[in-house]
Specification:
The protein is α+β, with helices and mostly antiparallel strands. It has one domain. It contains eight helices and 14 strands. A hairpin with a 5-residue loop joins strand 8 and strand 9. The longest helix is centred in the C-terminal third of the chain and has 15 residues.
């Protein structure tokens, strides 16, 4: 029994977040260990699900953002700390100090700007020192810490390593948006809509289309193989619930306050 449906990006984030919270390694770290949840729109959805709360002023939990005609960033001075959780509780601590206490059964959750068919994740680096991932990747790799990347299929590109090869902050000249470098991550656990449906409902699905208009820009269309009518009903209930999620409205920093203005400020 094949069920087809479309998900706008906010709906995808809702479903992906629910699935991330159901992962055995996340549940174990929630009960007995440590979880780091970085900034980002999909990560906000994860934090809301895991902590059972509603995040207001979402831009305070976002650093890099593609919004208002440019790949840019939010106002740094307005951002809150990322979430550091120990045994299900938020702890007020510098996140790097928190990460230094991690072991192999703790969990690091970081969003991405891209994923590719080979299982790589790509992250734009607006900070000259590499930002969150640049400061943490050595610890993660050295200690074998679980890196979970929740990312919708709208972010699929041909190759993250190929993107990494051409990027670099100091390579930029004339551009619209902020200067960025790039890092391609391998061996992360990437959770898209497809993995999420398998985790939540035991359903295998494939992507059959993408894109849209009228609020469905960035949408993905999926076909799910439901084993029976009960499963199909559960799927449609989940999709309808997710589809009621409002699209994000994150504003980038103002051009007039930017210390390194791009060509967008010429308009």
């Amino acid at each position: 029994m094949i069920s087809t449906f479309a998900l706008h990006p906010a709906a995808s984030k809702y479903i992906i977040a629910r699935a991330v919270c159901r992962l055995p390694e996340v549940q174990k770290a929630w009960e007995k260990g440590r979880i780091f949840i970085g900034h980002g729109t999909t990560n906000i959805a994860v934090a809301e699900q895991l902590l059972n709360l509603k995040i207001d002023q979402a831009e305070r939990y976002v650093a890099g953002v593609i919004s208002q005609r440019a790949a840019c960033a939010t106002e740094a001075g307005l951002r809150h700390k990322p979430w550091c959780l120990e045994k299900g509780r938020i702890v007020d601590i510098d996140w790097l100090e928190f990460l230094n206490s991690f072991g192999p059964e703790d969990v690091f959750i970081k969003g991405a700007n891209a994923i590719d068919p080979c299982g790589n994740a790509g992250i734009l680096l607006g900070d000259a020192q590499g930002g969150t991932i640049g400061k943490s990747i050595g610890i993660l790799k050295a200690r074998g810490i679980k890196l979970i990347v929740p990312a919708g299929l709208e972010k699929m590109i041909p190759s993250c390593p190929s993107a990494e090869a051409v990027m670099g902050r100091e390579k930029s000249s004339r551009l619209i948006g902020m200067k960025t470098g790039y890092i391609s991550l391998s061996n992360a656990t990437i959770i898209t809509e497809l993995e999420s449906l398998k985790i939540l409902l035991g359903i295998d699905a494939v992507q059959i289309a993408a894109g849209g208009v009228g609020g469905m820009e960035g949408a993905v269309v999926l076909a799910a193989d439901c084993r029976d009518d009960e499963t199909a009903q559960a799927l449609l209930k989940l999709v309808k619930q997710a589809s009621r999620t409002s699209p994000g409205n994150i504003k980038r920093k103002l051009c007039r306050t930017c210390s390194d203005p791009c060509s967008l400020a010429d308009n």
